[in-house]
Write a structure and sequence with these properties.
Strand content: 5-15%
Helix content: 40-55%
Oligomer: single chain
Number of domains: 2
Structural class: mainly alpha
Radius of gyration: 35 Å
CATH superfamily of the largest domain: Winged helix-like DNA-binding domain superfamily/Winged helix DNA-binding domain
Largest sheet: 3 strands, antiparallel
CATH architecture of the largest domain: Orthogonal Bundle
Shape: elongated
């Protein structure tokens, strides 16, 4: 049987304690080839030195080990280790992972294969989430409030961003929302802005990517409202208010000139006066 990449990946995913990356898989393949020459052949057994057949110096065979411990170790010419390529490319790994994902989905499996920003991992299907919480004796997850979600959206699109910027964009205090997001490890302190008072700047964490189910910030949906260009223009206009114009007051801009109150009163009196004889 030739080397089956999908089967190997299944085992690696099951045994991995965290996300399985392309680098992890390629490192395992490199280790295999480094150790392949030193592995014994199938069926070979090492005879202790001085243990001649039937000789007086021959030692009695050791007592049988438990059945579980007596299982043979994988060896170099085992069928699972035949034709292992010296290099498995990222494209081959991704293709195999995509095939595994489709197989699990088609079978309606209780586990799913998902790809995060650090690699692939097996997760339980959302419909079994309650059973996992019962096993771990964990409370149900707490949903973020609308205010916290708005704050998180501004930080995600605008980062690094200060609290003053967030409050200016949203028009309300952001202290409670920032505290909640820091508590949930969805944001972190990036540094301090080069502004008077050196205010703290915030950015999103890797947990945020897991929270929204994306691999990088580049996968965030496009937003005309929260784009840096639109926000810069909005903040500039907010910091430099202009005088109200006719269009802001709902007046008709089609006329070339607008009459003053005195001109309007004079025109009314003239219109009401009797015609001259």
């Amino acid at each position: 049987m030739a080397f089956d990449l999908k089967s190997v990946l299944k085992v690696m995913l099951f045994a991995s304690s965290g996300p399985l990356s392309v680098k992890d898989i390629q490192t395992a393949v490199a280790r295999f080839h480094e150790q392949a020459e030193g592995l014994p052949l199938t069926g070979e057994s090492e005879t202790p030195a001085g243990a001649a057949e039937g000789g007086e110096g021959a030692e009695a065979p050791p007592a049988a080990e438990p059945a579980e411990a007596a299982l043979p170790e994988p060896v170099a010419n085992d069928e699972l280790y035949l034709d292992v390529p010296s290099l498995i490319t990222t494209a081959q790994i991704r293709e195999a992972m995509d095939a595994l994902t489709l197989e699990l989905q088609a079978a309606g499996s209780e586990v799913l294969l998902i790809e995060g920003h650090t690699g692939w991992r097996l997760v339980t299907h959302p419909r079994f989430a309650r059973w996992v919480r019962l096993l771990r004796n964990e409370p149900p997850p707490v949903k973020l409030s609308a205010s916290a979600l708005e704050t998180l959206a501004v930080i995600a699109y605008r980062q690094p961003v200060t609290r003053a910027d967030i409050e200016q964009i949203r028009g309300v205090s952001a202290e409670a929302g920032i505290a909640k997001l820091l508590e949930r490890d969805l944001i972190y302190v990036v540094g301090r802005a080069d502004l008077p008072g050196r205010p703290t700047q915030f950015g999103t964490t890797d947990a945020f990517l897991e929270f929204v189910g994306i691999k990088s910030l580049d996968e965030l949906p496009a937003s005309d409202v929260l784009s840096p260009r639109q926000l810069d223009a909005w903040l500039q206009s907010a910091n430099q208010p202009r005088a109200a114009e006719d269009s802001d007051m709902g007046l008709d801009e089609t006329e070339e000139t607008q009459m003053s109150l005195e001109q309007a009163a004079t025109k009314t009196e003239t219109a009401g006066a009797p015609p001259a004889e």
